[in-house]
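ok so dumb question maybe but i'm new to this and my supervisor (M.) told me to 'just get the structure for Integral membrane protein' and walked off. so i did the thing. is this what she meant?? sequence i used:
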Amino acid sequence: MQTIKIIVWSLISLLMFLVLNYIMHLPAIGMQSSDLMRTNLMAIGLFGIPLLLTVFRLRVGFYFLALIQLIYTVGYFSAAYQVTMLSHAHVLSKIAVMVVVIIALLINVYWFMLAWKFRKATTKARTERYMKYRK
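this is what came out, is it supposed to look like this??
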């Protein structure tokens, strides 16, 4: 059950990244770049591989997913900096992007809380199983 929650919130986090990436490339924001599609495909691949590992019950998928979540969390801070300091967009556009960034950061924090609870539960279950055979 916790695995499904983590997968669902990972997909929500990916969706938030794709939305923010699209918003950042709008002409109203002023961040010009031609690699929107390439960045989106890369993000889908980076999230997809660990999610597949997780679906196949390989725990290493959770660790890769946590690393990718951490990298994208840093990316959200970078997006906030770019919009506030480097963009010449209208103030309302900047506020809208900042709201999306804050929502995405809250989703990632919630994801890390779920992952931490899952890690604690699996470690406890493994320890109890080991102690049962040790006696």
